[in-house]
Amino acid sequence: MPRPTTRPALLAVLALALVPLAGCAGADKSPVAAGGPPPPEKPVGQSCAALPADGPGSLDSMGGIPVLSAIEQSKDLTALARLVKTAKAKDVFDSMDNVTVFAPDDAAFAKLPDDQRKALDTQPGASDLLRKLIVVRDLKKNDLTDEAYTSLQGAVLKATGTGDDYRIGGARVLCGSIRTSNARLATLDQIPAFGG
Q1: Fewer CB under 10 Å: which end of the chain, C or N?
Q2: Residue 154: CB partners within 8 Å, gap ≥ 6?
Q3: Distance of CA 87 to CAs 20, 131, 145, 170, 178, Å?
Q4: Cβ-based neighbour number of residue 14 at 10 Å
């Protein structure tokens, strides 16, 4: 079951309609072992091998930069980068810590009906979807086998999978457990289905 986020500051901020994305920085941090942080987890998914070996968009490059910068570097996440700009959420993304961002690729956004794409061109529409795609937990591979998580927006994301086949709300994880300097990133092949 999802682990509830109980920090008063986070709950108060999420209740504010005018600042729908603020306040998630630093919430619900995963515990660190007494001997230091665990070794980095290898990303999972059939599309991980297609990432550049070095330079912008590579695992090494993304590991040293904030998650939004990693999104902006990816040639397959341009629609999501535009969504962040429309929502005016750059500062929020840069301040987040130990969260997981589920990132539909450009092909996923292209599959949306015209009316849904038009809604995402507005700040409220863009902000609403972004909040649905962020979970305030550092979700690793083992966390995606058979669990349900509550997003910032309050929607439920169902995670299922084994081996190299993981799904979030029915969307296939193309490459997941990508570590950036302040968050974990997982690219998806479609907009996930959200539960209430």
Answers
A1: C
A2: 14
A3: 9, 10, 31, 25, 23
A4: 20
Tell me the Cα Rg of the chain: 16
Q: Which among 184, 93, 109, 178 has a CA at the least distance from the CA of 139?
A: 184
Burial string for 35-50 (b: 16+ CB within 10 Å, else e) reads eeeeeeeebbbebbee
Residue spans of beta strands (DSSP E) within the chain: 99-104, 134-135, 146-150, 156-162, 165-168, 171-179, 183-188
In the numeric block, which tokens belong to residue 106? Answer: 């450009």
Residue with tokens 């979970």: 135
The model's pTM is 0.81
Q: Which residue has the tokens 């040639």?
A: 75
- Cβ proximity of 148 and 109 under 8 Å: no
pLDDT tens across 116-164, in order? 999 999 999 999 999 999 999 999 989 999 999 999 999 999 999 988 8
